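INTERNAL AUDIT FORM
Audit reference: QA-55
Scope: verify that the stored structure record matches its stored sequence.
Auditor: D.O.
Record contents follow.
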Amino acid sequence: VFFCFPLWNLCFCISAVMGGCFSVSLSCDQVVNQVSQWLCVKESYIHNLEENLAALETTMEELKAKRDDLSRRVEREENKGLRRVAQIQVRLTRVETIESQVDDLFSIKTTELERLCLCGFCSKSLKLSYRYGKRVFMMLKE
């Protein structure tokens, strides 16, 4: 048996099995809350762009410093006749790749920041700013 109550609170009774009823209850408040959370995440890539860029710059400086320290340590050990472990080379190469990707992001930083309007809550080109903001956020996570 299928029941539908077309009120503001949407409740559905999917089926009656052996006297039991499986139901899914979803209120308008829940729907609005889910949609607003989704929009908030999408919008935060744009709104938090300047903060994320600053954090990415700081994080990249720290990563480069660690890479340089590791490279010096490896070079010192290689001068003593030891060989470089493959895992170290993989990590150093990964840092170079990340550095290149971050440099690409920073090369268009000024243009992207100029697109922002309304104190960073909006953009003159939402699609482009969203994509750029997401790339910055994902690189920061990485």
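Auditor finding: record pair retrieved intact. The longest strand covers residues 10-17.
Action required: none
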